[in-house]
Amino acid sequence: MSEYVGIAVMFVLAGGVAGAMVVLGSTLGKKNSTAVKLEPFECGNEPLSLPMGRLTIKFYLTAILFILFDVELVFLYPWAVVYRDLGLLGLTEMAVFLGVLIVGFLYAWDNGALDWQ
Amino acid sequence: MSDAQAQLLVMFIKAAAIYGGLLGCAALMTLAERKFSAWMQYRIGPNRVGPWGLLQPLADGVKFIFKEEVTPDGASPWIFRLAPLMAAVPAMLTVAVVPIGGEFQLFGVTTQLSITNLDIGALYVLAIGGLGVYGVILGGWASNSKYSLLGGLRASAQMISYELALILGILSIVAISGSLDLLQIVEGQKGTFLGFLPDWNLFKQPLAFVLFVVATFAETNRHPFDFAECEPELVGGFHTEYSSMKFALFFLGEYCAMIVMACLTVTLFLGGHAVPYWADAPWWIEAGAFSAKAGFFLFLFIWVRWTLPRFRFDQLMHLGWKVFLPLSLFNLFVTGAVISL
Amino acid sequence: MPPQAVQAAFVYLAAVSVASALFAVTRRNPVHSMLWVLALFLHVAGIFLLLGAEFLAAVQVLVYAGAILIFYLFVVMLLDLPDEEARPRFGKHWPFAAAVGLSFAALAWFAWVAPTNALGAGGATDSQAPDDAALGSVAAIGAELFGRFALPFEIASLVLLAAIIGAVVLARRRATAP
Lengths: 117, 341, 178
Hints:
The complex is a heterotrimer. Chain A is built from 3 helices and no strands. By secondary structure, chain A is an all-alpha fold. In chain A, helix 2 runs antiparallel to helix 3 (88-110). The longest helix of chain A has 29 residues, at 58-86. Chain A is flat, with a radius of gyration of 25 Å. Chain A starts with a helix and ends in a 7-residue tail after the last helix. Chain B has one domain (65-103, 112-340). Chain B contains 13 helices and 4 strands. Chain B has a two-stranded antiparallel ribbon with strand order 1-2. In chain B, helix 1 crosses helix 11 and helix 3 (77-94) packs antiparallel against helix 5 (132-142). Chain B is globular and about 60 Å long. Chain B starts with a helix and ends with a helix. The relative contact order of chain B is 0.14. Chain C is mainly α. Chain C has a domain at 1-88: NADH-ubiquinone/plastoquinone oxidoreductase chain 6, subunit NuoJ (Four Helix Bundle (Hemerythrin (Met), subunit A), Up-down Bundle). Chain C has helices spanning 3-26, 30-50, 54-78, 81-86, 94-113, 124-127, 132-135, 138-146, 150-176. In chain C, helix 2 (30-50) runs antiparallel to helix 3. Chain C is globular and about 50 Å long. Classes of the chains: A mainly alpha, B mainly alpha, C mainly alpha. At the A-B interface, helix 1, helix 2 and helix 3 of A face helix 1, helix 2, helix 3, helix 6 and helix 11 of B.
């Protein structure tokens, strides 16, 4: 457990330095803002509406496929660690597990879920 | 001084030294990037501040602090401030488990040159490093600008897609060494392979190595995968609206992530701090060997940037999901089969 | 670490977990809620660490904070936030939500007061003195997962397969609609 004290020390150090940089930048920088300067950037045009509500489904599909494969890989960590003790049985277990998921992967591929238009 | 106090003191010293080293490397990387770019384009590059422009990063830092900070209208104020921190801090945290050098003595405490050593080191790097996505996506959202939002979404979709290849690359190494502990992974790479090569995982896992290195480029949003800041389409990407120190912090985070990725590549595939053919090298030689190896990969980041053109976003996603994911799964399976037979 | 330090760390982690959970359900801006959920996940991971469950803590961060919450953020970004914030705080289904909440609280209370074996969890915690360091390690989990729990492990792949197919089907319908 005490190994994680080092992580906490590092977190305080990194967060402190990065936070100090942001605070320093905000307080020491000059402020001279005009209405035009504060507009969202749009190549000099009048800003049009924001793209909220018009996002393509692709982003969601990518994110959810990532979750599913991420969960799948979570099972692989313990497998990779104890693999040498398990031997052929471990390989078979993992082959069945991955085989089922590869079916899902091929299904997603076949249905164009992995295409990005 | 009691033993526990000494250990605590040693840890603080190591943390401060390694964190300082990381920031220093990141600052030098900004200079190296500009210098190498200049040389590759037959220019001179920054050469006015200090010898060879060595003080340029310092001058840039001071300038960033005193520049005007613009928070665009309609931006979400707190998240707009928080996003650069969330981009930079995870990258800085991951360096804590990288074993930079072997054992040495300080105040009577025997310790290694790494802030800490976890049993699940490789997993820690992935878990904490993965949190860097938040800075990108929240920065894009909080700016209230369409370029920022699209840039943030694209960058995060890209980062999560290539994280799978990254994880699978690490897993095939873990299967070889039977541990998630980065120090043990390094220990497993000492000695020789086939009698004359150093026993690096690079020679046992060439496919995983190639996939891993390419995935690190995508993961850090570097060329040829830098869609986060694809100028012709998205202006500056998720940090279009950012200025002064907050902008600098995004950059610092990006360079820290590059350094950590280079360190991780070296640790996993190139024997970490192990010096070839010299098993009991002193710790400072090991640290030097580690830096030299990591330096090569940092140079590779810059070299590739000025060599390859940028991909298209759909090509990137195809490559990630239809080439890298199946190939790295296949590689892991073959690794498993070879080990068990 | 000395026991007092562990105790203090637990109090801090538990208090912040509860507080951020409360913030997460009371904030009007969904993105702010998400950030509080992120704080909650990270602190819960800390509690897992205190219990010696290193692997579980890492997975908590990797999967919940690093993948699932990102997906939620993608969804929230699609929402029309000013409209969302103007809506009444409690939807029509609040009695149902309250019932679920109450029954969960009852379950937690039952688990707390009931003797260890009453829930049918098996005598593992009683018969073997748990060796904290080894119990939560990746190797220990691997040995159990691929030995005693091999069948549930294989069934998990079917659950994931169903989820993949479900996601693909939903996205495809939406994509072909005009």
